[in-house]
Design goal:
The structure holds two protein chains of two kinds.
Chain A: H1 4-42, H2 51-66, H3 69-75, H4 77-84, H5 90-114, H6 118-126, H7 131-142, H8 144-164, H9 172-183, H10 187-215
Helix pairs in contact in A: 1-2, 1-5, 1-8, 1-9, 2-5, 4-5, 5-8, 6-7, 8-10, 9-10
Chain B: E1 3-15, E2 20-32, E3 36-40, H1 47-54, E4 62-67, E5 70-71, H2 77-84, E6 87-91, H3 102-112, H4 117-130, H5 146-158, E7 164-168, H6 176-193, E8 196-201, H7 204-210, E9 213-218, E10 221-227, H8 228-233, H9 238-244, E11 261-266, H10 275-283, E12 288-297, E13 300-308, H11 313-325, E14 329-332
Classes of the chains: A mainly alpha, B alpha/beta.
Chain lengths: 221, 338
């Protein structure tokens, strides 16, 4: 039963999972990073407090975060069809994945930026730095280690979600696990896909940890 | 002399959910070019809020702040930022960028003012040699001691050639030896470059060591201002006395009630002259040293001492006379103790 076709399918599935995960994370960051920055900047006591904007973003992020992924996946099928042209397969799964992950990313970015010492921000203000300079050269630069750790967490989470999309034919390893392992009782395929998913998370985590260590200048000696 | 900082009737009220804190209750001050101006007060007196009003990190609730005659509240955001490049600030906790090297920290204000990288590096190297940290150029702040971090912060503060330097408890996180070295550096900078320095502190010793003028803040109000010599020798307000005689209302003085005490201020005596011992020998009566806070600065004794005199009035008078002939400031403390 481990013919070349099955092996090819699993290799392709791994590729599809990575593709979904990486592209969704990228899009989630394109959406979530600015929102996270805006949340910090507009918050009361932030660089440019804007109460209405902060409240609005806060509510939207909370609402999106509280919709379970599987529900969101089905809820936005018309939207997915509109963007990609169909509602199944790896590319189509990217749409709900990115939308589900963006608010999660926004919160991660927010908490990373909030870790930056207020005194350093004050110092930059006292030097006459503009809010833009402070965001770019103080907030993002000083929080970079925490942001990378957040990015690694996002990748792992999105990879997990991508497997969930297998329920509705989302493509990738999760899809294979459900179609062959679950519906056709092929336990060996199920086990292999699970091992591959675990390995992928491990590798992504390792890269993230290495990178953040390498970039952290706060560690002495 | 030219007034560089003028604050008029500045108040600052923080409004919380269910409380209002009046941090500053109408403070007016003038600081002149080239002065080292100390603003001293107990913690919570409002001095940190006051210094933040000088560069509008904190906007006063009312009152005006004039920097070189220009009203900060009338400025646009851009103008305010340009003015801030002329008013540098250093902090208690240094506030360096932890992910940048020492030299890149010093370059940071130059990036803000868009100085080309090559020029900025040159300037940064020059400044690091002034603060004595040339060999630490590529180090990260986490690898430096507190004193070294503050030196980097000072170099960073000087990068834009500011006219004023605000120091917010800049030595409070440092040990006494490092504190002296940092204060000496600030004094050198003040003398060499004519930068007006404003020092916020809760330690009288800091003010004594380098300030020319001092303002005492107490519970959001200005208690007293004057030259350091004036305020230190003849503190008028209660807050000033408390600071000058730091720790003075502590336990031991309770026992002195009713006895004659004097405070002596050393300003010009030789460190090598055993004044008190000579006085005891000359008057043939013991005295009780209740407080002694003196130090040797270049062979001259500086500081103060509080003595409990013998009960016999004549001997006490003789002692006071003796000290006066030795050109010491003598002040009776009867009204203060108890």
């Amino acid at each position: 039963m481990w013919d070349s076709q099955t092996i090819l399918m699993i290799v392709e599935g791994t590729g599809a999972t990575l593709y979904m995960t990486l592209v969704s994370t990228l899009i989630a960051y394109l959406l979530g990073l600015p929102v996270g920055i805006l949340l910090v900047v507009s918050a009361p006591g932030g660089l440019k407090p804007m109460k209405a904007l902060y409240k609005a973003l806060d509510v939207v992020v909370n609402i999106l975060r509280s919709i379970p992924f599987l529900i969101l996946l089905m809820l936005i099928i018309p939207f997915t069809r509109f963007i990609v042209g169909r509602s199944y397969g790896a590319t189509a799964t990217i749409v709900p994945l990115a939308i589900a992950a963006a608010p999660f990313v926004a919160r991660l970015v927010e908490s990373s930026l909030l870790e930056v010492d207020h005194g350093v921000i004050e110092a930059a203000q006292s030097m006459g730095a503009s809010p833009g300079t402070i965001i770019w050269k103080v907030l993002l630069a000083e929080a970079r280690v925490s942001l990378i750790v957040g990015g690694t967490i996002s990748l792992g989470t999105i990879l997990g979600y991508s497997a969930m999309a297998g329920v509705v034919g989302g493509g990738g390893l999760g899809d294979i696990a459900i179609r062959y392992g679950y519906h056709r009782y092929q336990a060996d395929i199920m086990i292999v896909t699970v091992i591959l998913l675990v390995a992928l998370v491990q590798i992504l985590q390792m890269i993230g940890t290495k990178l953040s260590r390498k970039l952290d200048r706060r560690i002495t000696g | 002399m030219e007034t560089v900082i003028q604050i008029q009737d500045v108040t600052k009220t923080f409004v919380g959910k269910d409380n209002r804190v009046e941090a500053l209750k109408g403070i007016s001050l003038e600081i002149h070019k080239g002065e080292i101006y100390g603003i001293i007060g107990m913690s919570g007196a409002g001095k940190s809020t006051l210094v933040r009003c000088l560069n509008f990190l904190e906007r006063p609730t009312s009152g005006t702040v004039l920097i070189e005659g220009k009203d900060l509240s009338a400025m646009s955001d851009g103008e305010l930022r340009r003015t801030r490049t002329q008013i540098s600030m250093i902090f208690q906790h240094f506030n360096l960028l932890m992910q940048r090297t020492v030299i890149d920290n010093v370059c940071f204000p130059l990036e803000i003012t868009k100085v080309p990288r090559k020029q900025a590096l040159e300037r940064a190297r020059e400044l690091l040699s002034i603060v004595g940290l040339s060999e630490k150029e590529q180090a990260y702040p986490a690898q430096l001691s507190g004193g070294q971090k503050q030196r980097v912060a000072i170099a960073r503060a000087l990068a834009t050639n500011p006219k004023m330097l605000l120091c917010d408890e800049a030595t409070s996180a440092l040990d006494p030896t490092t504190t002296r070295a940092i204060l000496a550096l600030l004094k050198e900078i003040n003398e060499k470059y004519g930068i007006t320095v404003v020092i916020i502190t809760h330690e009288m010793t800091v003010v004594q060591e380098i300030c020319s003028h001092v303002a005492i803040i107490d519970e959001g109000e200005l208690a007293e201002t004057g030259t350091v010599t004036e305020v230190f020798q003849r503190p008028k307000s209660k807050a000033a006395r408390k600071l000058v005689f730091q720790g003075e209302d502590a336990q031991p003085h309770m026992e002195m009630k009713g006895k004659r005490c004097i405070r002596i201020v050393f300003t010009s005596n030789s460190s090598f002259e055993p004044v008190i011992a000579n006085m005891v020998l000359a008057c043939k009566a013991p005295v009780n040293i209740l407080l002694a806070d003196t130090r040797d600065i270049g062979g001259v004794a500086h500081g103060q001492m509080i003595l409990q005199l013998p009960e016999d009035n004549q001997t006490a008078e003789n002692m006071i006379q003796y000290l006066k002939t030795r050109k010491l400031e003598v002040e009776e403390l009867d009204h203060y103790v108890g």
